Amino acid sequence: MSTDSITLTGLRITAYHGVYDFERENGQEFVIDVTVWLDFRQAAAGDDLARTIHYGELAVEVADAVRRDPVDLIETLAERIADVVLAHEAAERVRVTVHKPAAPIEIPFADVSVQIERSQP
Prior knowledge:
Layout: E1 5-15, H1 21-26, E2 28-37, H2 41-46, H3 55-67, H4 74-86, E3 93-99, E4 113-119
Antiparallel strand pairs: 1-2, 2-3, 3-4
Helix pairs in contact: 3-4
């Protein structure tokens, strides 16, 4: 497995996920971090974008995945994002972190997040 990677950090996307009605009605900001591992050698040797993953397009794909079809759990959202990333032929492995900075928690906190890693089957 490759040790080369592309990382998108701090994608800020408003969406309507959550268990509570007010989360679904009002929406909130989610912050997404994605690292995708792939082999850069062929892309670098030929200076060929088609042999890597276009990080600008990947950011849009991740944002679209976050915005669609509200779910209860950010764990479900993380799986959805991982599936989108791994749909790229060049992607070998992905790490997804979903932060929910406005989570409905009574105790003061800085962040709540879930993190998953998935690989190609």
